[in-house]
Design a protein that fits this description.
This protein has 13 helices and no strands. By secondary structure, the chain is mainly alpha-helical. The protein has one domain (about 60-325): ABC transporter involved in vitamin B12 uptake, BtuC, CATH 1.10.3470. Helix 3 packs antiparallel against helix 10 (about 230-250). The chain starts with 5 loop residues before the first helix and ends in a 5-residue tail after the last helix. The model is unreliable at about 325-329 (pLDDT under 50).
């Protein structure tokens, strides 16, 4: 008899192989193309060529950062979809990314050093999450009301972003705008996103048994022994940390947390022991491919990576809104 988890582990294996392929593609393509046959040798052996420097000083750090940020956003999306019990949950759509972006742009406007950006992003994301649930959770837990409140809150943060940009000095404005649309050009230290990913994925997997119960509804989860209020608080903080890390590193990149979990859920179901690592792999693949397109389509010029994720995310969001609005994840 076939074990029920066997097919899901096969899915993770396929996603892992696809991740390696996406990473190789990103390292090979650019304003200077590197033959795939030479790539493996360049990764491990310094032959003194310009290709080696291009790979190790530019493409490899950026590609690994893109994968880590995409995976972080996907894990945050999974967690928010558990809170909403709705596949439309996403840090970007619900305004959490917007709150973090307002805080970081405010820090930029005040001229605060780069070290302040990550704490500011976490504070903005946390404030946005608290506002979201304080405004939406009045009496009954209504996921439709929560989603609509998030959309309105995102519009409010967007207005504040426009206000901050209108006050910004002319010299800082181009950099702020490019960062706001999602920019991985300066993300050349992959250690931070991978550290945050490891912490977030570990925390999510520790919560996975309770997440599997929480998606069935608050009352049923309580009946099965889950302290739902404590679980919600843990998810708020974990999702805020993940969103803040992604925003502080790469700007407000949208829709990765929507697309990646939905793609994996179609094959893996709602078992979060599989869904969380699967969504992390899918999110990493998605952002690596989007960043590769941003670097190569009109090379040597670069486009904001958030443009490409939005081009994919908007039709997916409309499809989910039409098909699954109000359904549990």
């Amino acid at each position: 008899m076939r074990h029920p988890l066997r097919g899901k582990f096969v899915l993770l294996a396929w996603l892992s192989a696809a991740s390696c392929a996406a990473l190789a593609l990103s390292l090979s393509l650019g304003s200077v193309s590197i033959p795939p046959a030479d790539l493996w040798q360049l990764l491990w052996h310094d032959d003194g060529s310009a290709y080696y420097r291009i790979v190790h000083e530019l493409r490899l750090p950026r590609t690994l950062s893109a994968f880590g940020v995409g995976a972080v956003l996907a894990v945050a999306g999974v967690l928010m979809q558990v809170l909403l019990r709705n596949p439309l949950g996403d840090p970007y759509i619900l305004g959490v990314s917007g709150g973090a972006a307002v805080a970081v742009l405010g820090a930029m406007l005040l001229g605060l050093p780069l070290a302040w950006h990550a704490p500011a992003a976490f504070g903005g994301a946390l404030v946005s999450m608290l506002l979201l649930f304080a405004l939406a959770h009045r009496g009954n837990w209504n996921t439709a009301r929560l989603l609509l409140t998030g959309v309105v809150l995102a519009a409010g943060w967007s207005a504040l972003i426009s206000f901050i940009l209108s006050l910004s000095p002319q010299g800082r404005l181009p950099g702020m705008l490019f960062w706001l649309m999602g920019d991985l050009a300066d993300a050349l230290d992959p250690g931070l996103p991978w550290l945050i990913l490891l912490a977030g994925l570990t925390g999510g997997l520790l919560l996975a048994p309770r997440l599997n119960l929480a998606v069935r509804g608050t009352l049923r989860a309580r009946a099965l022994g889950v302290e739902t209020q404590r679980l919600h608080t843990q998810i708020y903080l974990l999702a805020s940390l993940l969103t803040a890390a992604a925003v502080s590193i790469a700007g407000a990149i949208g829709f990765v947390g929507l697309i990646a979990p939905h793609m994996v859920r179609l094959k893996a179901g709602t078992d979060h022991r599989i869904l969380l690592p699967g969504a992390a792999l899918a999110g990493g693949i998605l952002l690596v491919l989007a960043d590769t397109a941003a670097r190569t389509l009109i090379a040597p010029m670069q486009l904001p990576v958030g443009v490409f994720t939005a081009m994919l995310g908007v039709p997916v969001f409309l499809y989910l809104l039409h098909r699954s609005y109000g359904e549990p994840v």
